[in-house]
Amino acid sequence: MLATIYTGSRPSQQQGSSQEQDKITVVASFYPLYEFASRVGGDRAEVSSLVPAGVEPHDWEPTPQDRQRVQSASMLVINSAGFESWADDMEANIVVNTSEGIELEHDDEGEGEEEDNDEHGHEGGVNPHIWLDPVLAKHQVEKIRDAMVSADPANANYYMEDADRFAAELDSLDAFIELELADCGKSDFVAFHDAFAHFAERYGLTQHSIHGASPEGEILPQRMQEIIELASELDINVIYSEDLIDSRLADTIAGEIPDGRVLVLSPIEGIDREEQQAGIGYIDKMKENVADLKVGLECRQQQ
Questions:
Q1: Are residues 70 and 172 in the same domain?
Q2: For the sheet containing 75-78, what is the strand order?
Q3: Per residue of the chain (303 residues), what is the pLDDT tens digit?
C-alpha cells in the first residue's frame, strides 16, 4: 500500500564526508514529474523515471524490478488524481502526491461522454493532466520541494532555492502563454485526447477531444463523424495529433474537413530519446505547443 505522505520528520544525512555521497533517491512516475524533481533536486538527488523515455504512460504497468526500485528509493513522486492506476499497490518510503491540495472539479459531463465513446473515464471523474497548466505545475514543484526538504533538512535551502528558480520560469511561461494567446480568431480546438482541460480553462479556450482519458483504444465511426461535423460547424481546420502516438486517425479526420491539416499538440506525458539527448524539456515543449496552437486558433503575431 502507499505510504503516508510526510509521517513526521525524516532523519537527516550523516555529517562529514559521507554527506556529499548520500543523495536522496527519487523515483518519479513519468516524464514531467521526473523533470520537476530533477530541477528541484539538482545534484543533491538521484532522480529516475518509472515510465521509460518515449513510452506513452496511460496503460503502462510497473515490472517487479520497478517495484523493487521504488521500495529502495527515498521517495516516489506521483501525479495522482487517478493518473497512475498502479500506484495504490506500490510500496514506498514516502509518496509525494503532487496534486494534493488542488481542487479538481468532477467532470460529470465528461464521464458520460467517455462511456458513450467506449473509453475509460478519468478516475473519480476528474481530469489528471494538471502539469499542462503552468500555475498548477508550480504547485506540483512546491510539493516536491517540501518532500525533499522533509527528507533531507540539511540541504533545505538548496532545494528551496532550486524550486524558487524553477517557479520563476513557470511564472514567465504562464505570462508568455497569456500574451501569445491574447489575440486569436478562435477559441475552440480539437485535441487528440482529453489532456488540455486545465490548460484551456486557464487561458480561456474550449477543448474538444477525439479520445477521452487515454489516447489509445478504438474510436467508433460515429465519434469520428461527430468530430468532423463539429470541426465544420466551428470552422476548425486543424486537428491536433500527439508526439507518442500514430497520427493516422487525426490524418483521416483532417482529410474530411475543408482545408484540414494535422499539427502536434503534445500532452508532454513523455519525450523521446532524441529530444532528451538534445536537452529539450518541459518549457520547450510547452512553447512548441503554443506555437502550433496559435496556428489552429488563428492568433495574431505578437510584436
A1: yes
A2: 45-49, 24-28, 75-78, 95-97
A3: 344 333 233 333 333 334 445 899 999 999 999 999 999 999 999 999 999 988 889 889 999 999 999 999 999 999 999 999 899 999 999 999 999 999 987 654 333 343 333 333 455 579 999 999 999 999 999 999 999 999 999 999 999 999 999 999 999 999 999 999 999 999 999 999 999 999 999 999 999 999 987 787 788 899 999 999 999 999 999 999 999 888 999 999 999 999 999 999 999 999 888 898 899 999 999 999 999 999 999 999 876
Gap between the Cα atoms of 113 and 176, Å rounded: 33
Q: Are residues 170 and 276 in the same domain?
A: no
- Domain containing residue 265: CATH number: 3.40.50.1980
**Spatial CA neighbour of 66 closest among 86, 82, 46, 45:** 86
Q: Which residue from 21, 75, 79, 22 is spatially nearest to 48, judged by alpha carbons?
A: 75
* Domain assignment of residue 133, given as a range: 18-102+128-176
Place of cell 520560469: 169
Q: Which of 104, 128, 137 is nearest to 35 (CA)?
A: 137
Residues 6+ apart with CB under 8 A from 109: none
Domain count, the chain: 2
Collapse the DSSP code of 225 into the 3-class scheme (helix H, G, I; strand E, B; otherwise coil) and give the result: helix
Q: Is residue 13 part of a domain?
A: no
Same domain, 226 and 256: yes
278 and 225 in one domain?
A: yes
| Max Cα distance, the chain (Å) | 69
The answer to whether 198 and 181 are in contact (CB under 8 A) is no
Q: Scan for cell 495504490, then name that residue.
A: 88
